[in-house]
Design a protein that fits this description.
Its EC number is 3.2.1.8. Helices cover 20% and strands 27% of the residues. The protein is of the alpha/beta class. Helix 7 packs parallel to helix 9 and helix 11 runs parallel beside helix 12. The structure holds (3S,4R)-3-hydroxy-2-oxopiperidin-4-yl beta-D-xylopyranoside (XIL). (3S,4R)-3-hydroxy-2-oxopiperidin-4-yl beta-D-xylopyranoside binds next to loops.
Length: 683
């Protein structure tokens, strides 16, 4: 974004086109956009803030059909066996993480979330543990196992099954016998949860079990009493995992009651291992609907991808058949999540006969279209001034979805200049009521800070907030949801790189943007003078060492103005560049380009006023256009890490717009945030 303070007369003449009237009519916040429909399970679940996951077996990751479906459909991954005790600590003190790392790193690179399964379980437990005969030894071994495994994946696992299947089947409602129960007594579960909380405070800690879906079962009641007791005594527990391994009839009729009763204790519920004998579409739909009807049911995991991948393979219990085709239950699930099943895929043209077919995932993700149309929400986020923040506009949003929430950072503009604000919410209907946390109260400090970009650095396990000061600056935070966790600003550069100094003219150095591939990180920035710059550093050096600054793209000043975004397109080798331009009508809009590499040259995609990426002429509005500007914003990403991966389908873009009649002081313009949803997605 452009620093208001330094707006010269040159700039004002362009902006005068906006200054049609001095009267600023406040734009009322409207309801959330109409339910947006996606065509994959993960994308659709994400629209209600949920995840849709699957169990993954490391041994199958070489199978292209399997990974094609995995990457297309699922945004959470549970290692099926690779994080269990027999896999991670087969002999005492000897930890092996090869297969678990393979799944975790792969998922993270693709923006998929991870569930941890499982730390303390009587099954798949190595013999050396079950033969321990001494309580103190076992307690030490258990705590060490929990701590070591959780440390390995610290900050990377959204939910951990801390204890699995500790309750007995049948009418007792008591714990089952196990080495843990027999030596440590009932308290072993509490001990495990306390140890887990100190090992990774960011992970949700779950108790996971099967046959606890029917509210009237003694086993369900036993688990319920334990969770109630834990909450009453402050024993750390955040969620209950209901495995949901169902017979042909699917869930019991009181399944939703069970979910809401657990949730009412103050824990999340998750369906963690769903499979249903013979995969009746109705049974699947009933299961998903029960979760959708309970606000604290935060996600669903199916226990495998194709029937042939299932631990119950003879019962054909999953959503994809052995060939990887969607079964009727798939469509039932997508519909129950609120999505629209796609029409059956057309046969490939005859000319392609003999060419091996690409996996459908790859086909779906093949290429972004070269024309776009969008529908916009009304204004979703407006400034919330307080006693010390007399905010006129909220601008330049950056957004990630993490842990079931949208996390938004934005610039706030007032007569005294620019600083940053943070808010989070579970879905767009709640965006308008979220609390605004002003970051000038944190170590980020007061003074000129604007145009933030947020991402998680997976290897460093740190969130980065990149923003402009008079340099390119950043702060870090181990916990995105803690506004007070940000570090004081540091600069990426010692001073403005020479090539920028030589080309900036009367422009401004603005809108810094970081994106990494596996080898390098790149820092893009604009100069309000027709140049997009790119610096680079080795991935392992980040955030240090940005050098080799070059002009990555150039055009006339207003055609390549500012607010660039660069993304990796999920499942493809394509990168997408968006740059904000000022059109012949004086209004802001976005042009787009693609490239096969981040350091490559950019080929126009939808890059003109008549075929824009996003401009008033390809956006429809709910009831009259609340803005004619489609200005500085952020794509809704498929993940949240430094690869900045976006989906290839059903794009959404959070942007700034404003009342077309507003004018006057640039710093006091009434910018608001709204959401675009692509309406011409073909996949
Ligand atoms: C199963 C796996 O799917 C199989 O591959 C393995 O042989 C046995 O375990 N409850 C659980 C899961 O918590 O870990 C189990 O997974 C299925 C039942």
């Amino acid at each position: 974004m452009n620093p208001l303070k330094r707006l010269g007369r040159r700039r004002a003449s362009v902006l005068s086109l906006l200054a049609v009237g001095a009267l600023v009519t406040p734009v009322a916040a409207t309801a959330a956009p109409d339910a947006v429909r996606a065509s994959t399970l993960g994308a659709q679940a994400a629209q209600s803030g949920r995840y849709f996951g699957t169990a993954v077996a490391a041994g199958r990751l070489g199978d292209g059909t399997y990974t094609g479906i995995l990457d297309r459909e699922f945004n959470s991954v549970t290692p099926e066996n690779e994080m269990k005790w027999d896999a991670t600590e087969p002999s005492r003190g000897q930890f092996t993480f090869g297969a678990a790392d393979q799944i975790a790193n792969r998922a993270q690179a693709r923006g998929q979330r991870l569930r941890g399964h499982t730390l303390v379980w009587h099954s798949q437990l190595p013999g050396w543990v079950s033969s321990i005969r001494d309580a103190n030894t076992l307690r030490g071994v258990m705590n060490n196992h929990i701590t070591t495994v959780m440390n390995r994946y610290k900050g990377r696992i959204h939910s951990w099954d801390v204890v699995n299947e500790a309750f007995a089947d049948g009418g007792s409602g008591q714990h089952r016998p196990s080495v843990f129960q027999n030596l440590l007594g009932d308290g072993f579960i509490e001990q495990a949860f306390r140890t887990a909380r100190s090992a990774d405070p960011a992970a949700k800690l779950c108790y996971n079990d099967y046959n606890i879906e029917n509210w009237s079962d003694a086993k369900t009641q036993g688990v319920y009493r334990m969770v109630r007791d834990f909450k009453a005594r402050g024993v750390p527990i955040d969620c209950v995992g209901l495995q949901a391994h169902f017979g042909t009839g699917g869930p019991p009729s009181n399944f939703q009651t069970t979910l809401s009763n657990f949730a009412a204790l103050g824990v999340d519920v998750q369906i963690t291992e769903l499979d249903i004998a013979q995969a009746s579409p109705t049974a699947y739909a009933n299961t998903v609907r029960a979760c959708m009807n309970v606000a604290r049911c935060t996600g669903i995991t199916v226990w495998g991808i194709r029937d042939s991948d299932s631990w119950r393979a003879t019962e054909n219990p999953l959503l994809f058949d052995r060939g990887g085709n969607k079964k009727p239950a798939y469509n039932a699930v997508l519909t129950a999540l609120g999505g629209t099943p796609a029409a059956p895929a057309a046969r490939p043209p005859t000319a392609n006969r003999g060419t091996p077919a690409a996996p459908r995932g790859a086909t779906d993700a093949a290429a972004l279209p070269s024309r776009y149309s969008w529908s916009s929400s009304g204004t979703l986020i407006a400034p919330k001034p307080d006693a010390t923040h007399n905010i006129a506009g909220i601008k330049d949003p950056t957004v990630v979805q993490y842990n079931g929430k949208y996390h938004v950072f934005a610039s706030v503009a007032s007569s005294s200049g620019y600083n940053l604000v943070y808010l989070n919410f579970t879905d767009w209907s709640q965006a308008g009521s979220a609390t605004h946390h002003y970051l000038d109260r944190t170590a980020i400090g007061s003074g000129y800070r604007a145009a933030p970009q947020v991402f998680y650095h997976a290897q460093q396990r740190l969130w980065y907030l990149v923003y402009q000061t008079s340099n390119a600056s950043f702060s870090t935070n181990p916990d995105i949801s803690n506004p007070n966790g940000w570090s004081a600003p540091r600069n990426f550069y010692a001073s403005m790189p020479d090539i920028i100094r030589q080309n900036i003219g009367n422009g401004h150095w603005v809108d810094m943007w970081v994106i990494c591939d596996s080898a390098n990180c790149y820092l893009f920035s604009s100069d309000d003078n027709g140049h997009l710059y790119r610096s680079q550093t080795a991935a392992g050096q980040f955030p240090n060492g940005f050098t080799n600054t070059v002009i990555a793209a150039q055009d006339s000043k207003y055609a390549l103005f500012e607010a660039s975004n660069v993304y990796k397109v999920h499942g493809t080798n394509q990168y997408l560049l968006l740059v904000e331009a000022i059109g012949s009508d004086g209004r802001r809009y976005f042009r787009s380009w693609t490239s096969g590499s981040l350091a490559g040259s950019w080929t126009p995609l939808a890059a003109s006023e008549s075929n824009p990426f996003a401009r008033a002429n390809n956006v429809t509005f709910p009831s009259g256009a609340w803005t004619r500007d489609i200005s500085h914003g952020e794509m809704i990403r498929a993940g949240y890490d430094q690869t900045l991966t976006i989906p290839s389908c059903r794009l959404q873009y959070l942007y700034q717009g404003m009342n077309p009649n507003a004018g006057g002081d640039y710093n006091l313009l009434p910018w608001r945030l709204g959401l675009l949803t692509q309406t011409n997605s073909t996949c």
